[in-house]
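ESCALATION

Customer reports they have been waiting on this structure for their group meeting. Please prioritize. Original submission:
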Amino acid sequence: MTRSVLVTGAARYLGGRVAARLAEHPDVDRVVAVDIVPPRLDLGGAEFIRADIRNPVIAKIMDAADVDTVVHAGVIATPMQAGGRATMKDINVIGTMQLLAACQKSATVRHLVVKSTASVYGSGPRDPAMFTEDTAPKHPPTSGWAKDSMEVEGYVRGFARRRPDIAVSILRFANVIGPSIDTAMTSYFSLPVIPTVLGFDARLQFLHEDDCLDAMQMIALAEDPMACAGVYNVAGPGALMLSQAVRRLGRPAIAFPRALLGVAGRSLGRAGLADFSAEQVRFLTYGRVIDTTRISADVGFTARWSTPDAFAAFALGHQLTPLLPAFAAQRHETEQGVG
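Update from on-call: job pushed to the front of the queue and completed.
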């Protein structure tokens, strides 16, 4: 069975790469990749159309391509990517609403895959040791990308109730890092001196960029989309304390009282060095770990890279440090088929 897939957010790293991957798959007949700006990455066999998902024209694009699978990777993570917080929220929320309206009218769409984030659980002192997909947030996010993602998920759940014939899969990814991707967390760990929160040592969990792409591809190309409908946490096994991550980079750290970190962070944000939204500061204070049992049991997906290995791959790929030579040797042996 061949597929016709629409991918949003194609100008950004993950959206562009998943579009290129899907276009190479033998079960995919056509991939239409859309965004408001041209992609910087080669989309391979995917067909790029410059379009704004906030515009009703997206419905015409879907109808013309007989799209049966929609991969919504177009939720923007930081205001810097959108040119400001107001534009970011407009694209994230209004854009999603317009896309869902197009899916609702479509006679061909049968699977919607939404790239979301574990940030919807928030971060705070009353959090559980691990969040499952059914855990209600104790400290729900109140601003930024995390709040937008909560709203997006709400609209997606409403769509799923209106169109029960369409399988809806929501993937809540842990912080994605790796050798090539640039995110708020990679920018933070790339600072020459890493600011931390005085008196706290957050538990962190990461997902390697390749595992993120593998998960989206596996879900999007599921033979039975209804079998993978629902909400799924996706993360690399294990966790790292923030202090451990900083030590592995061999970089100096300076601890600020939480209120001062927010002030210092806003200065770094205005300089374009790193994202220090209120939610980011809470995350660096309390951290977050998610349980991935459901996607392993229901879909058969398990991340190939643990959280420590994903972090090491990020450090080596960004040439931040020559650390972990044993890790590098082990990965080389694995890639060469040794052991």
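Sent to customer with the following note: The CA atoms of residues 87 and 255 lie 33 Å apart.
Escalation resolved.
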